[in-house]
Task: structure prediction
Amino acid sequence: MKRALSLLLLAAMALSLCACGQRREETAAVNTVPASEAPQASPSADQELIPAESSLPETEAAPAEAVSSVVYFTSDISPEGLQAVYEALNWQPSGKLAVKVSTGEPPASNYLRAELIGPLVQSLGGTIVECNTAYGGSRSSSAMHRQVAEDHGFTSFAPFDLMDEEGEVQWPVSGGRRLEYAIVGSHAENYSDWLILSHFKGHAMAGYGGAIKNVAIGMSSPSGKVYVHSAGTRTSGSIMHSDQDAWLEAMAEMVTAVRDHVGEEHIIYINVMNRLSVDCDCDGHPAEPDIHDIGILASTDPVALDQACIDLVWQAEGNTSLIRRIESRNGLHTLEYAEQIGLGSRSYTLVNLDD
Result:
């Protein structure tokens, strides 16, 4: 049943891409191929502003020099499916591995459950890493955050490290127009390799949350979170900012700082598309999803990965509320700007591991 659903979903996506004509030429280019034909991976509230549509969103054309990245997909949302997309990347950590997840705000957020991610993290000898929040809640202090991590099962299968517990460090941003540096928890210096393991969903401020946001906000210390949210204008005070596009651009710039510091061969990205609420895992009382679970995707390119998730949302039934959330926050601008500054490519080949 899952395999049939996957094939129908991807087939519908491919047909829609062919039918969109000139409109599709203005969006990220997508190829869908079975795993047997895949190129090898390198080892290395809501403002109802725009009505949802069933076709793919219009965006600016990708730069001519953009290359197509590989994104792996499975509809199997299970420990085995997670293992399969990880193995498809043909990547192994070279040293100490950090696994960046969101621990989730109590009491009822949609964080990735221990039973789903635990086996993979254990097999890799990874450490679950997080930073404290900048907005209050149950994860704004180390003591409370550690309790949340324990209550949500993360300490049952791996060590847990609050990276900002002993301070923060700055990693430079090259060529940014919003940020001069990223401000990350000081313990980030202790890891050579990174698995960015994200729950893809909506977000009240960014429109959506995926791999880019999990790094840009999730790896930032509290002052670093304010720095990104304010598009580089302050490091304390409110996370609210009047220039929406500016802070979306700041997120992309922060991720380039992380990539450049750790080396792109030392970081991979996996998105889990389940419990697709319009609200993020920082919301302890998220709205119930209107859209069905879709699958797990993985790539070495965070831009291609998040774009692929967006495209699958646009093709799914029950997507109206999530599309409205993304569009009303201009969420696609994060991807537009991320590609513009060279973080990754919105053009991708989607490899279906269910074939």
About this structure: The two ends are 13 Å apart (CA to CA). The chain has one domain: 80-346.
